[in-house]
Amino acid sequence: MFKSYTIKDIAKALGLSTSTVSRALNGSYEIGAETKKLVLEYAEKVNYRPNPIALSLKEQRSRSIGVVVCEVANNYFSQAINGIESIAYSSGYHVIITQTHESAAREAANVQHLLSRHVDGLLIALSAETTDTSEFKFLHSKGVPIVFFDRIAEGIDTHRITVNNFKAAFEATEQLIIAGFSKIANISSTPNLLNTRERFEGYRAALQKHGLTLLPEFVKYCYQGGMVVGEVEHALQELMSLPEKPDAIIATNDRITTTCLPILKKMGFSIPSDVALTGFTNSEVAESFAPPLTVVRQPAFMMGQLATETLIKAIESKHPLYESISQQFDTQLIIRDSSLKS
């Protein structure tokens, strides 16, 4: 049976005081070289490891970070988490990842669970359902280090890492217009989310710039963010059964984008000859779709890294950081066959 050795066990075995063993393990100059050698060799022999709970009580820190995202399987968030972990682990922090599955109730439960685990700070991308951010305001006011990334809470002066959503959607819409499409529909996540609204404004601005009318029936919202396939299917059925069908669609989140393509094919539409498709996705296989998919790609890995660096800086600051950091990345529009006239 595995036995976890403590400082007391080592002290008893070597006939030393616990304070002597503790100082020897910590490399204190007060302990002689022979005693240090004796303690360290024995600690190695019994595979002694410091108790993280005891350390966290002593230091008032757990050296862990809580992460709240909609789902790990989402292409964007899986890459962001890789970025988060790359910085956290190299900085001596563990990462606890939770998923909301776009539920505000689950998000609240996840945050409470993470706080009960005494995480040192939180990295949060809001759920599609979240409209009440008062709990985050309260936590922020109490000094809990919080960084929002991708999906941010408005009205809280905390750190936020985003992309230029307006510019991203503007460029994607304009590419479709320049390619010869004029009846462009927009399928997006819930307008509860600021990034949804910013992307919609970019879409609207591109239409306006090129003298195209924004038709209300061409705008569809998926309030579960594409997590429910039937919701996306319903939106597409409504669009493609209009008397005047769209000749192009821009999907403005990862899950919706990767769901649109197979549904349109199942409905019997050819892409791009019947309807062009552009989407926001970090899927590594977008180029392998038939046809290859035009995408807006976010620098998810770098965003995860910067969010974590920002959070750790806030955690380790000896004084509260009253000045919030707001960093905005540019996206990359990768043009492929799905948004070009055949």
Automatic annotation (TrEMBL):
Gene3D superfamilies linked to this entry: 3.40.50.2300, lambda repressor-like DNA-binding domains
Keywords of this entry: DNA-binding, Transcription, Transcription regulation
TM regions (residue ranges): none
SUPFAM superfamilies associated with the record: lambda repressor-like DNA-binding domains, Periplasmic binding protein-like I
CDD domains: HTH_LacI (cd01392), PBP1_LacI_sugar_binding-like (cd06267)
Domain of life, source organism: Bacteria
HTH lacI-type domain sequence ranges: 5-59
InterPro entries the UniProt entry points to: Cro/C1-type_HTH (IPR001387), HTH_LacI (IPR000843), Lambda_DNA-bd_dom_sf (IPR010982), Peripla_BP/Lac1_sug-bd_dom (IPR001761), Peripla_BP_I (IPR028082)
Short name of one Pfam family: Peripla_BP_1
Keyword Transcription: yes
Protein name per UniProt: LacI family transcriptional regulator
